[in-house]
């Protein structure tokens, strides 16, 4: 496999300066952005990130590579004025720097980026990553409008870098540009960990975002499984508020934060089975971690789960609560099947979602995004957004 230094050496002229524009920096978005920007930083790219400063995701900001210049915009929960402020900050950034590439992360940054396209030199590359089916659900009803926007003078059609295969599939027919895929990688510590099943059958689940709907679904399944007298215990991993903690306690489910990767790896790997009960609208980060650990996984039959799990080969999918209970019972009674599915899941994720694959994919997608010439970089000062 081509390594980072090989790809970096092939870049000519030298790497340039990238502006990333982000709306909601969720765990799923950072799961792609963190490794991608780290890869670009190690390859010599300078990078600025402009993003909304949402308190619930503020902990992710410190995880960016130390060389990245982070510009945050205060976010008001009950107002849309922060998007006007973000627009003004982006215009300032474009006026102050000669960016060789602009990367738009999410639907609203995409909408903002198309408007800003006329302010960029022709040589500047523009990339778009949707990061989830909610974005694509917005794009499909707007397909005619999107096409009209793209045909307007001064509007740049971005190159697409999908962070999952399911995103790439959904974008087909929506965009005319070629779609490249750089799948969200998994930290090497998950691949290196040894499995150690708990003494008592343990069903684990979680959501990196702490989605209340995910908690509700898992608690409901936990209550039903408890009634089935399988002798199961249950653990949930993810951020929790008072309401979520009360719901977990009522369902007799243990709750754990995921602040430290090493602790998460240890606790998660004790599970007998991982249950992905969420209706995932973005890349299922926690499911990919569980598969990398070698846990046998039972997941709701959704596009993002099907993206990772080959039903019956690297995990089991369910389409109803009754089917979920049957799949869990089957795995509890069959240690050989648990081991088979867990090993197959780990092998699949290792082949697809290793950090080395991200290095190769993101640098391949960015090849040619070099620093524009000084002449090309001279553009008219951008307009200022209203306060």
Description:
This protein is α/β, with parallel strands linked by helices and 387 residues long. 44% of the residues lie in helices and 16% in strands. The protein has two domains: 4-185 and 356-377, 3-Layer(aba) Sandwich (Rossmann fold), CATH 3.40.50.2000; 188-353, 3-Layer(aba) Sandwich (Rossmann fold), CATH 3.40.50.2000. It has a seven-stranded parallel beta sheet with strand order 3-2-1-4-5-6-7, sandwiched between helices. The chain has a six-stranded parallel beta sheet with strand order 10-9-8-11-12-13, with helices on both faces. Helix 2 (27-42) crosses helix 16 (355-366) and helix 12 crosses helix 15. Mean pLDDT is 84; it is low at 8-12, 142-154 and 372-387.
Name the descriptors.
single chain; 387 residues; alpha/beta; Rossmann fold; 2 domains; 7-stranded parallel beta sheet; 6-stranded parallel beta sheet; 17 helices; 13 strands; 44% helix; elongated; disordered C terminus
